[in-house]
Write a structure and sequence with these properties.
Length: 179
Amino acid sequence: MIRLMRFAIAKVWYLMRMAGRAMDLQLMVWERNNTYRPVESPEMKEAWSITERVLYEINSLCRRNDAKFVLVYIPRAIKVVPGMLQLEQQKLGVSEPASIFDLSRGERRLAEIARRNGIPFVGMGDAFRRNVPEQLYLTPILQDGHLSALGQSVVAHTVAEYLYQQRLLPSNNFRTNSL
């Protein structure tokens, strides 16, 4: 029994210690790899460069195979759900005011990369803000980030409408009033 208690105490101590390290790691990632910060870190500049090269290669591969590549941007909850940025900052212990972050920077940057490379782009930020953003994600938002059925529906309808408008869908198989 005592041996079991020692094991349980050691396990709890270890998990608490690892949880602290996990938060430190999350904070480090937030500080270094954050597209919303006013000044980009060297890691973010490199990440954007890699992203552009990968998207260019995907688009080239699609063109070589007579396929059309469309880039769809789905925002994180902190970008569209009021108060979520502040909750994430609080969770990580970030002391900077939320007002210094530009939450649309990532979407704008991807749209610019897409434009430069001739890639059709569908940004979902506005579509999400037009709906009830709190209902577009599964809960708990901070741990999960997956879309709810409503969020998936908003994405599907917005992308389908874009594809139809760009004549990338056969017109006889699509009705906008069915959305």
